[in-house]
Amino acid sequence: MTIGEWAGRLRYRYVPDHVVGEVLGRRWTDNVIPVTLLVALTLYLAAAIPNFISVGNINDTARQIGEFGLIVIGMTIVMLAGGIDLSVGSNFALANVTALALINVAKWPVEAAIAATLGVGALVGLINGFLIGFLRLRAFLTTLVVLTLIRAFVDLLLEAYSVRIASSDVESPLWDFVGAGSVLGAPFSFVLLIVTAIVAHFVLTRLRIGWRLMAVGGSRRAAYNAGISVPRTVCLTYVVSGVLSALAGTLYAARLSGAGPDTGIGLELTAVTAALIGGNSVGGGRGSVGKALMGAIIVSLLLNGLVRLGLPNGASSMVVGAVLLIAIAIDVRWIRWRHSLRAKVYVSPAYLALPAAPLFVSDPSSPYAMNDRLRDVEVIGLGEVDGPEDVILDLDDNVYCSLRQGEIVRFLAPDYTKREVYAHVGGRPLGMAFDRDGSLVVCIAGMGLYRVNNLRKVEKMTAETNRSRLSIIDDSRMRLADDLDIAPDGKVYFSEATIRYGFEEWVVDALEGRGNGRIIRYDPATGVTRTIIRNLLFANGVCMAHDNKSLLFAETWGCRISRYWLEGPKEGTAEVLIADLPGYPDNINRGSRGTYWLGLAGTRTPSYDMAMTMPAFRRRMARRVAADEWLFPNVNVGCVVHFDENGGVLESLWDLGGENHPAITSMREHRGFLYLGGVTNNRIGRIRLAGADPDWTGQSSYWGNRR
Amino acid sequence: MNPLRKAVDSWFGRGEASITIPPMDGAFRPNDLLDLAPLSLEAPAPDCLAATSHGVVVSSDRSLLSVDRSGGAELASFETPISALAGLPDGGAAVALIDGRIVFVGGEHGGTTVQKNLEVACITALAPASDGTLFVANGSAKNGPGAWKRDLMEKNASGSVWRVDPRNGAYTRLAGDLAYPYGLVEDAGSVVVSESWRSALTRISPGGDGRKEPALENLPAYPSRLSRADDKSIWLALFAPRSQLVEFVLSEDRFRRRMIREIDADYWVAPCLRSGATPLEPTQQGGVRQLGVLKPWSPSRSYGLVARLDPAFRPATSLHSRAHGRRHGVTSCLMVGNQLYFAAKGDGVVAARSYEGLTP
After folding, report:
1. What is the value of ipTM here, to two decimals?
2. Looking at beta carbons, which residues of chain B come within 8 Å of A633?
């Protein structure tokens, strides 16, 4: 090995390329830009302005953020449902005047005045909501008009009351507390903001109305078709926004007790900027309260910092405008960029060096030596089945197979000419096994582990396992449950081939050659599902050893069979049983006389083995060459391998030209015959075995000779 | 032209470095006409066809076989395998052997042997010239005719075209630096040669240093022998398809070198005359049998293709044996009367069919 190869091997072992694509696939990556911005801005301002991080300043800023953040949350809620509310600024000013007039001039009790002010805000929101939600006016224009109207109304109110507001004084501890009080050292308005944010987050992410709101923003048409009342939902968002603006206006009134004509001028633009720079989408359906908070803090810090830096008057508006433009650009480009980048980097091939393959072509003395023993296979259901990945027989000799259409079809003994759909399970059923009471347990790609009971009723057993702590993609759900077997105590051991790809993309997992697979245990007694082995190279066939003390499993891309100990001194450990198969192992099943059968879905080729040690070559191939043209293991030639308890290979049955049985993925021995299935075949095969026990069946081997 | 462009393109695999091949379309629209042609002869490796006074003959390993007579009677045999064959106007034949000698059978020069020229060790095609001399294509300066796959994978362009005078055995070099010349036909005083690794036909003008100009480019497969029909149209055999995967491997130097060094040539990711012979050969994702059927359009490393070019070397029509066909690796074709003969070396078949109804 040269130093370059050695370095390459280390690089592919320790640099987790696959993480990049997985991170880009998560929604929380949308927060990367705002968080970076926030940290950078804080660091810069802290360095540029003396005392920026002093207690006094933080307190001041937090109080302002409290007011502003409420407005931004309201704006975000409107935007999440696909709208925009430009009237927040004048609504804020209206609330300010209303609160002051009611408390200072009309001398209402503070509680009543606050309630009335919020009611006025809600009314303004309701007007917006009615016009936009029910009359379907354009949000932008409507709220712009409302903005102007309310502003004019505020001016009239100011003319009437401003002098009297300014000249009167209020003695109310509650009002003072609202304006200047603290809770646990934090300004009241900031605490109120946090509480509001938590409630809003809970509503948006956990309650039905929140989901409906997001659905409306994501696609009005789809939401309507799903039965959501779009007008009501839209209307509600404006009411919420109105109330929150009024709440902010009340806090402002309590803090400054002053009513001027420039209150809340330009606030709508600042609020939109904050909502967008936090990472909320202007088109709706994407965003969160957390993003709104972050945006509010960024914009507040920025404005506050600009004032403290002593920039001239117009400059801060200019900065807000510039930030808004950048935010819009990011909003438009980010998603598209993220998706295209993810598509490019998600597939991340790993380094995989397999042991030398046995000489199954050139060495006739090899137990794997090629022969034509499968050429004389009898064929069952030719052209009537689409991809019988697994076959299994019951004690009445009926043959069951799992088909691509999501069906389990059975052919009736003795002549197997009559077929019937045993159960429609959906998904892509793969491995099957009978349990003690005769229920058929099935692994279904895209769904999980299911059971078809004696009455042919389909029941879910499990579709979720424990999430690994460091996994970025959610590996608690099952994407590609593949094969299973059942222990005498009823526990089901099953394989999930890969956690990174679905069944339709298993080819990409082959190209990747990383340990993405796992073995999972489901205990029907407790209902607990646990992952017991991780990082397997396409975990595939699973089979209980004849003595039930261990479990055999196949790793397809690893071309090996391993044994996992369920009891005894090596309990909980795995050891390799056959390390150098000449092909890609699929299902493993018990045979008579203490043996096992293994299907090889294809043969190893020198070129592909070499490509597996050159990850960069495969990565470029994945990007530059059409998928149909990709280099691929040879899955056109099928083989069945017969091996014993110690991993010694007894014989192999080949179909040389792949004419009768290309790609064998499963086989079952039953009363002296071997039944063959293949995931890309249109037939089931059956061949008489010379040395087999003619009375042996899988059922009796597992559960004894009971019916 | 930006000098950085090439480096950037090859890094990202776009522009010049993107992997594209011409589609089988237009005159190359696929059909199954080669598979439908009646069988003339089965032989181990029928390679080169020629019209002689004994009718149509074909070279197969060390023998010259008659195609017209039933059973493929052996007309002549040699001590080493034949690498090229040409019918001469006088009814004789020129036979090139893999050791570099050219033997004349029948006709005016019958019995003459032109001894090996050290610079011409890989004779891939012969063609009679109108002045009584013989054009000789020397595929590669580095590899023999049997190692064509290696020559492609080494990305060589070391072939040359010569003129040899049967009367005195003198060789004259006409042109060099050709990417595996594999077919020859004289055309209006010049000679047109098929350059396999460039997937193009190149015209070499007479004269000392052999000016080269393209006659036909961007073929969807690797061209081999050329022949001329009575109606002046040109028939071109294309022995293997180009594929995106092979072009990609050619662009991947490290993989290519390791493959040449470590893997048996039969199992290379490279074009071949007949694919699927052993399970150790590379396969491609689209080549997976579905429901027991290999789709005719699936990617394949071998293919059967014969094209008719008009006298100006523009493709007019073509006959195919697609991925699922059994007439792959056509290295030679010949129009005699109204019968089109072709030798599918990959599948050991010579077949002939009338050309009626194939006009575009």
Report:
1. 0.92
2. 283
